[in-house]
Amino acid sequence: MHIDSIQWSRWMSVGIQELDDDHRVLVEIVNKLAADDSRNSPDVIEAILDELIHYTKDHFAREEEYMQRANYPTFTAHKALHDALTRQVETYRERFRASRDTIPGDEVFDFCADWLGKHILKEDTRFGEYATGPGVAAQ
């Protein structure tokens, strides 16, 4: 079975180069799960989940700095969302570790793609619109 990888497009952009670069890296990490050889190896899947969690934590910290500098009005809610998203993927990784032979790679890819897509496309683009709007100095 072939899974379509996530394709970056400009409508995913938040308009801040460093954050867009981070998002591209996150997409690349999740897309590693789209490769047949990756999806069929529990060791590789677990390593990709570990990489995703590590990079996500770094990215969230950078993004939160931008939000604080821009006085983003919903910063507290967005940070709480980051914390919840981190817990969600960490919980998924633990579930995978406990049942690695029964959770197919396709399911892991679907989970990660959905997890990433909903956050970038919905939440982060809202911040991008705010930060790049008139009168806001996010940089």
Automatic annotation (TrEMBL):
A matching Pfam family: Hemerythrin
Entry keyword Iron: yes
Segments forming domain Hemerythrin-like: 15-127
Matches recorded under CDD domains: Hemerythrin (cd12107)
Keyword tags: Iron, Metal-binding, Oxygen transport, Transport
Family in the record: Belongs to the hemerythrin family.
Protein known as: Hemerythrin
Organism: Azospirillum rugosum
Biological classification of the source: Bacteria, Pseudomonadati, Pseudomonadota, Alphaproteobacteria, Rhodospirillales
